[in-house]
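User: Can you help me understand a structure? I only have the sequence.
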Amino acid sequence: SDSVAVLPHTVISKLDGALDSLRATNDQHLAVFSELQKMKVQLMRSFDARVDNFERRFEKRLRQVELKANDSGGASPGTPTPVSPPALTAPHRPAFFEKDNGHERQIECVVQLLLQGVVDGAATRGRGESQLVAIVGRPGRGKTVTAAEVARHTELGVAGGAFPGGVLFVTVGQEPSLMSIQHDMLANMHWPEMPPSIGSVDEGTDRLVDVMQQRVRRLQSTGTREGPWPRFLIVLDDVRNASQLRALVGPSPCWSSLGSRVLVTAREARVLRVCDLVPRVVDTSSWTKAAPRGDAPLVVELFELGVEAARRIVVADAEPSARSRTRAARAGEAAREETDGPDEAGGRSVDGDSDRSVGDSGPAVGAEALSSPSGLVERVGGEPLGLNLLGGLRRLSRQYWKQVSADLSDALEFIDAVSVIMSRMAAFLADESGSAEHADAWQGLLQMAIFPEDSFVPVSVLALLWGVNVGDARRQASLLQSCRLAEEGAAGGEMALRLHDEIRDRLIDYNGGSASERVCQLHVSLTEAAARTYCDGQELSRLISEVSDQAVAIPAPCRAYFRTWLCWHLDRGQQHAELEDLVLSVAWIRSRVLRG
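Assistant: Let's start by predicting it. Here is the structure, written out as tokens:
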């Protein structure tokens, strides 16, 4: 009985010992767990500190790279100044431009509307002048050319005194990088000071509104205040929707009448609805310099050109030799040449030139086809783009000119003249009886649909896409320019081509759409050709690095183009792995920072 009584005490004692052992083990586990928690917190803090330190070092290095020593102009040695911003200037006049182009009244009207409230170079207060004027019209009607003429007007520039800050001409387009546009605008407005860094579109909008409202300017280099900003004239070309306009001028463009002015070109007036004010149309036919008062945006519509103005574009474009003559002599000689008419026998002109010779300035049709109510010019609808193409075709081939004339004259209702002319131009270039150079030019034009909107593409880049040398690419580019299918310009001192957005849209349709397999493959072909030619098949960051150890030097215009658009081409070509490698490349980051 005694042993039985002792048993429970023994068991309880052993259980207590086991519990004590478990408790000690648990305490150890808790201690380990607590230590791990502390280590985790320390690691996280260390990681955050390293990230913050890296960001600070990166921002510091970025600023050091973007600044350069300025030892001239009385500045002390080593004084940092920002890299010169990209010039936001109006585009050059097109080759077919005529001063008396039928839009003179609209140009003068827009200039006077922008000058409302500016007296002797100083803006007046409280007069209720509109701060936003828009040029509205269908695609190809000459909005960009008209806006460029306004921007070049002597009364609006720095010399005229109305806008001492200058004129900023910005192309927006269908797929803009709004933050890049904001940065370029701010860089020009702040020059020679460093522009503020912006982290979002909304932040960029706030910065732009501060400048356009002429708020007190604070100099970053000295920390002092200089007074109000100068007035700017800001031209926003080809605005497609209200959100784009809102990002670049703010939610309400009705600033103080001491502020800057904005000129917008758009296809429709509805893009101006960035505030509660309804845009008002200005009747230029009965317009006087007494512009309507109020803060609402003012709209100047571009209508089709009259027959005489349209005829001048076609004749001048078809006969480049006439540009050196006076306008009266040119018109008289053009009328005489058209009266002679072509020789119907054999499709040859009177002087025996071939029907297919490019640059043939001989007559194409009689004067009645250009001036009669049912004539060809009127069928084109007075659209400068269509008239430009019409003049190019008139120079190229009388046979296809006659076919276009028949196509347009037989139409009983409205017809898309640009599409008709382009289809005949394509048939002419692709005609089997023609030269191989013509066929190559048409295929090259189709491939140009992959290039970004409103961008000049150097011939060194076109040569990569077309698979030819630069000399052959230059000849094909000259042929396309002579057809007026592309606009000739310059990029870094090299010949370059740019497509009108309407022509580009039609070429994209010819290729099956922007997301088609063909378009995707063209993007891939371009980047692969660039890597093969200039990178020896290695990483594409070599294209834009400042120093290349390749045997074949990369042309500066080609490097500059790919510095801006390589990511865009990789994304459109669905080359995701290459795109990821590129954005992580040190050479790529360095080139983007240096912007050389």
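Now, to help you interpret it: The radius of gyration is 33 Å. The chain has four domains: 2-75, 104-301, 307-433, 437-594. Let me know which part you'd like to focus on.
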